[in-house]
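[Automated response] Your request has been received and processed.

Submitted sequence:
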Amino acid sequence: MSEEGFLRRWSRLKSTGGEAEPARPAPAPAPASVPVAVPEPVAARPESVATRSAPLPTMDDVARLTPDADFSAFVAKGVDKSVQRLALKKLFTDPHFNAIDGLDMYMNDYNKAAPLPPGMLASLKHAPGVLSRLFEEQPEHPEAAVARELAAEQAAEQATEPATGQAPPSTQQGNA
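Generated structure:
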């Protein structure tokens, strides 16, 4: 496998227009008489010059952090995980990160219906007439509804009265 890594190879091929470089011949094996250096384990390797010059941050450094401070030292390799977590927690307490995104469509609670303002309710007064026209019913005025109910009551009374025009028997007994 190539030692340059996937992203470097991809970048190189992208910049050259996709023309692959011819495969490099494998290096010749070293003669057996020469001792081969065994690489040291990662943990046993000495720290790089950059990390030796600056000590790793501690909890005291986290306490002195401000929102404008440089947090890159706290996320570097070798920093204690609890120090990293505390530094990031302090970073995200900044109100800048608490701003609500106006494009967040689902941030509201849609379980509670908002009351309709009076202006909107007034504009909906025309709805019964529109709906009755949609369903081909004639809108009825309140006076017409009362007149219809009275006519229904009178029809019911006339159906119970005898055809002779005399008062019902219950009223005749009360007069005698």
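Summary generated for your ticket: The longest helix spans residues 142-160. Helices lie at 6-15, 49-53, 59-63, 81-91, 118-123, 127-134, 142-160, 169-175.
If you did not submit this request, please reply to this message.
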